[in-house]
Structures are given as structure tokens and as C-alpha cells.
DNA sequence: GACGGGCGTGGACAGTGTACACATCCGCTC
DNA sequence: GAGCGGATGTGTACACTGTCCACGCCCGTC
């Protein structure tokens, strides 16, 4: 309904603020999303933001949402590159692609990555595997979709699925966090990529 | 050398500030460690902190260090409860204990947990398995020690050790982060504990 | 007993998030 | 078409933060 809200005086200030926020997050993570700076970049007074966001946290949440969409897009690109192959093999390749894409995004856009996952997300939203359409997906929805394929093909017993989902998710996310802002920070990026691939392989074996 | 620095006017202000910082971190994570509030609690003027820390980040780093020690203590407690058993079984039980202890600390002290791992750590320090003595260990050093046992007993081939270490670490840390400040935030604690155990089991299987 | 240097104080400044009161302009109703 | 109401943006203000600077104090040392 009325997606044509649009422009009043400024022309969709909300979107402009989110975009400024993304630029800030890109170079400094969630803490760099400074409300006043975002309004400055949008060419507007600080308080104007309060017509569109309850407070700074609300703005950051919106930026986080957009970042999740960007991450999902990166993963979808990786998925699209998976060659077709007979059933199970392909499903496993797709699972691998999700992990690799996730880590690739973390490496290429550390600021956005940290912002995307520094905020509690609506679980129903994040988990739902459908929600297609560009920019609409979330990384966890994509993982769920791939796991659906695996269970459907019988490669993953249904009763083990929940734990498998947690493991896959935890392993990849944990590795990314350790490298980005944890004790492993500063690990050489190529090295990190290589180790990341091994973590993905082992997680798949664990599943 | 000269650990007897101690007291000038205040009686080891540095330590007092770290303790105030820990209290703050406990209830609000790293962002809650605000320098002025710490000095306030220590009954001292804001600038006094600058005689002991270069800046706020330096104070947070010190608090993070202490938090890591507390985490290590929690894990050691868990390790101490592992019953003796024949070689390999015991080693595996110890591995499990490290994972459980790590997650337990994350659940019981979320603020300290996040503070402990929100800061880049000196890798050499964090990794070294020796560094015994109460308050001196780190969670990752303890994990390394247990893995040493596993390789020594032949249960874990030496060449697979590095990746195994990464997987164990990533899975457990990742799960904790997802629950504490990621999309899984708000998951029921008991539920989280149960799922956490399964993640630990699967990670062990993956190793 | 003087004194120099570690330790803490006081005051100040820029920058932040946010509340309150006000100005402006669009779209709707008559 | 006139006019009004409510959404949108502005200005001012306040409390709070991290950090800089100049100063005062008190201890151990010569």
C-alpha cells in the first residue's frame, strides 16, 4: 500500500539517511553510524532524522537490515555460480557456496558484515527461506533453503536438521567474528580465506 | 619487575579502575565501559585515568584482559569436574568440558563475555597453553592444551590439528555470539544451553 | 632539607544523542 | 479555488562523553 510515499521536501529522506548510514558502516562498523554525521551527509538538520527513526539504535537497525540484504546478494551470486550436477552433489556444492559466500562478504565488507549482525533480528524474517526477489533475502534464509534441499533429497535426516543448521551457522559466523573483531583480528586475509574454507569443509563433515 | 608499584595517593588506582570497568562491562558489555563513570566509581577525577591508560580503548583492553581470565577460570572449573577415565575418553570429555564451560560463561556473564572478545588479543599470549596459575590462563590457551592431549594420545592426527582448532573455536564462539548479540538474541537461555550442547557435540564429531 | 617527577585536579572544548518549541508546505476537504 | 491540518524539517538547548592543557601536591632521593 502506497509504496509511493516518497518525497516531501527532501525526496525520501529516510532512504537517504540509510544510505549515508551504510557508507559510514562500511568504513567503521556499527559504531561509526553516527546520527549527526548521517544527517550532515544528507544535507539536513540533525533532528530531521527523528521524523523517520525513533533514535540512533533504530537507524542502525535499518542499516543493519540493508547490510543483511547485501550479504544475501553476495551469497546469491556465489550460489548462481554453482554448476549443475546430480542431486546430492549439487546440494552439497550449494551448501559450500553459502559458507564461502558468507565468508567472502565478511572479508570484502567487514564493516557492513559487523553491522549486519550486531543487532537482534526478527527471527521469523531472518529464517524464512522464501522471501525471494533481489534485496529481500537474508543469509540465514538462504542457508535454510539449501538445508531444505538437503533434507528433501534425504541426505540430511529431518531430526538432525535443527542442530545441523546451528552448527553450520555457528561455525561460519564464529570464524568470521574471530577474524574480524576477535582475537584473530589482523590475520592475513588470504590466510583467513584458506582457513575459512577448511572450517566450511569441516562443518559440512560435521553435518 | 617491581610488581610492588602500588599505592601512591589512592592505593593502586589502575586496579580500581579496571575493577570499576569490569562492573560496568558486566551489566552492559564493552560499550558500557565509560571512562568517566569508572573514575567516578573509583572516587577520582576523570583525568586521573590518563595517568594509567592511554585512552578509553586502553582501559577497555585491560578490562577485556581481566574478563578473559575470568572466562578461563570458569572453564578450568568445568575441567576440574571431569572424572578420570582411560586415555582417549578422558581427553574427549575434557574437550567437551572446554566447550561447555565456554558457553556457560557466555550465558552467565554475557557482558563480560562480549567484552573479553571484542578486542584484538595478543595472539602469542592467547594461544600459549602453559601460563598456568590462577587468573593467568586464557580460554584459547586451555583449548590448545586439551588439543595437545588429543594429538599426543593419537586421537587427533597432527596435520589436522590446526583446522580442528579453528572449527572448535569457531563453532563455539560463533554460537555464543549469535545468541548474545546476533540474530538469535533473546533465545530462551535453557533452550540456548541445550542447543549449545548439541553444537559442541557436532563440532567434536567434525573434529 | 631542598627538589624533581610521578600522581591527581580543575577547567575547557568539540562532539554526540535527544527533547522542546516553532516554521513550513503538501494534500485534502468544503 | 480557499483554507486548514498534519506531516516534515529547523533552531535552540541540555546533559553527557572523551580528551587536552596548565597547574598543585606529595613522595622518595640526594
**Span from first to last CA of chain A?**
43 Å
Query: How would you classify the quaternary structure?
Result: homodimer
The helix/strand series of chain A, from N terminus to C terminus, equals HHHHHHHHH
Q: Radius of gyration of chain A over alpha carbons?
A: 19 Å
The helicity of chain A comes to: 55-70%
The tally of helices of chain A reads: 9
State the largest interface. A-B, 37 and 38 residues
**Unreliable sequence segments of chain A:** 1-7
Output the CATH homologous superfamily of the domain at 63-206 in chain A. Answer: Tetracycline Repressor, domain 2
Give a brief rundown of this model:
The structure is a homodimer of 207-residue chains. Chain A is an all-alpha fold. Helix content of chain A is 65%, strand content 0%.
Describe it.
The structure is a homodimer of 207-residue chains. The first copy, chain A, is mainly alpha-helical and 207 residues long. Chain A has a domain at 63-206: Orthogonal Bundle (Tetracycline Repressor, domain 2), CATH 1.10.357. Chain A has helices at residues 13-28, 35-41, 56-80, 87-108, 110-116, 123-127, 139-152, 161-180, 189-206. In chain A, helix 3 packs across helix 4. Mean pLDDT of chain A is 86; it is low at 1-7. The structure holds a DNA duplex (30 and 30 nucleotides).
Amino acid at each position: 500500500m502506497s509504496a509511493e510515499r516518497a518525497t516531501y521536501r527532501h525526496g525520501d529522506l529516510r532512504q537517504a539517511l540509510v544510505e549515508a548510514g551504510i557508507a559510514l558502516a562500511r568504513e567503521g562498523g556499527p559504531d561509526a553510524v553516527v546520527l549527526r554525521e548521517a544527517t550532515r551527509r544528507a544535507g539536513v538538520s540533525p533532528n530531521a532524522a527523528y521524523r523517520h527513526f525513533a533514535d540512533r539504535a533504530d537507524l542502525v537497525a535499518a542499516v543493519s537490515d540493508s547490510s543483511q540484504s547485501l550479504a544475501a546478494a553476495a551469497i546469491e551470486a556465489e550460489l548462481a555460480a554453482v554448476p549443475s550436477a546430480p542431486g546430492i552433489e549439487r546440494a552439497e556444492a550449494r551448501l559450500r557456496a553459502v559458507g564461502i559466500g558468507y565468508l567472502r562478504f565478511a572479508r570484502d565488507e567487514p564493516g557492513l558484515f559487523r553491522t549486519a549482525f550486531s543487532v537482534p533480528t526478527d527471527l521469523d524474517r531472518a529464517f524464512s527461506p522464501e522471501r525471494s526477489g533481489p534485496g529481500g533475502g537474508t543469509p540465514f534464509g538462504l542457508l535454510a533453503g539449501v538445508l531444505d534441499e538437503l533434507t528433501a533429497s534425504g541426505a540430511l535426516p529431518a531430526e538432525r536438521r535443527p542442530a545441523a543448521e546451528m552448527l553450520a551457522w555457528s561455525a561460519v559466523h564464529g570464524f568470521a567474528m574471530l577474524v574480524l573483531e576477535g582475537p584473530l583480528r589482523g590475520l592475513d586475509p588470504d590466510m583467513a580465506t584458506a582457513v575459512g574454507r577448511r572450517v566450511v569443509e569441516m562443518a559440512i563433515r560435521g553435518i
